[in-house]
Amino acid sequence: MLLAGGLGRRMGGIDKGLVPLDGRPMAAHAIERLAPQVDELLINANQNAHVWAGFGLRVIADDVAGFAGPLAGLHAALTRAAHERVVTVPCDSPFLPHDLVARLAAAWHDAGADVAVARTFEQLHPVFCLCRRDLAGHIETYLASGGRRMENWLASLKTVEVAFDDEADAFRNINTLQELDAARQRPQASG
């Protein structure tokens, strides 16, 4: 699941995943890296659905109103995915690891966890996660209670943190125009 359901406030209210990087939308880079790792790829988007549909993937909106954040996107995926496990990545992280899903799945399986989450050094990256589809009701209850922070939701589950210290730059989010400029100047930004 590609999470593209936010408002892009820190980038001036534009749909971040559609912003060009190396001649293609940022989301195209993330899709290119994630697609070979999964059997089904969905896009969670709450605006510009017709543009997102141009990627040739199924586009789903949040069921929870008011742009409730990544958990609302994860909830939407869990209620519609065809498979028992769902992985999420943000649309504004074009450098994600080519082995993200394999490493999350191995740790998830070994730990008997509910959720596996990427971590680099001391930094947790909760939107890079793999979880069981049957957690949809758990998220729904959390969101209905007013919860929005992914970290707080994860704290209520058996969560395994998966170290990606060897690929710390792969989890860089591009949230601002300044970060976008830096990414454009990065050597081999799309590779």
Briefly characterize the structure.
31% of the residues lie in helices and 21% in strands. With 191 residues, it is of the alpha/beta class. The protein has one domain (2-185): Spore Coat Polysaccharide Biosynthesis Protein SpsA, Chain A (Alpha-Beta Complex).
Describe the model.
By secondary structure, the protein is of the alpha/beta class. It has a single domain, classed as Alpha-Beta Complex (Spore Coat Polysaccharide Biosynthesis Protein SpsA, Chain A). Helix content is 31%, strand content 21%. The protein is built from seven helices and nine strands. The chain has a seven-stranded mixed sheet, sandwiched between helices. Strands 2-3 form a two-stranded antiparallel ribbon. Helix 3 runs antiparallel to helix 5. The longest helix has 12 residues, at 100-111. The chain is globular.
Secondary structure: elements and pairs:
Elements: E1 2-4, E2 20-21, E3 24-25, H1 26-34, E4 42-45, H2 49-52, E5 58-60, H3 70-80, E6 85-90, H4 100-111, E7 115-120, E8 123-132, H5 136-144, H6 150-155, E9 159-163, H7 177-185
Parallel strand pairs: 1-4, 1-6, 4-5, 7-9
Antiparallel strand pairs: 2-3, 6-8, 7-8
Shape: globular
Q: Percent range for helical residues?
A: 25-40%
H/I helix tally: 7
Task: Write the CATH fold name.
Answer: Spore Coat Polysaccharide Biosynthesis Protein SpsA, Chain A
Strand order of the largest sheet: 5-4-1-6-8-7-9
CATH architecture: Alpha-Beta Complex
Number of domains: 1
